[in-house]
Task: structure prediction
Amino acid sequence: MSPAAMIRRRRLQEAAERLRQEPGLSLAALAADLGYADQAHLTNDFRHVLNVTPSGYRRDLDAD
Result:
């Protein structure tokens, strides 16, 4: 795995963890905290790797 892929994976793990722990956190703030250029970049990475958007992930957590 390349260093860039490892960083991306860790950032997405952090994003998922923060969404679980802080359900009220704005996605824009989360993206900024994790070093993404904007919310859209976070959403694209999240969807590409996890096959769900961050808001969809959060919604699924609420359904459980």
User: Anything to note?
Assistant: DSSP finds four helices and no strands in the chain. The mean pLDDT is 94. The two ends are 33 Å apart (CA to CA).
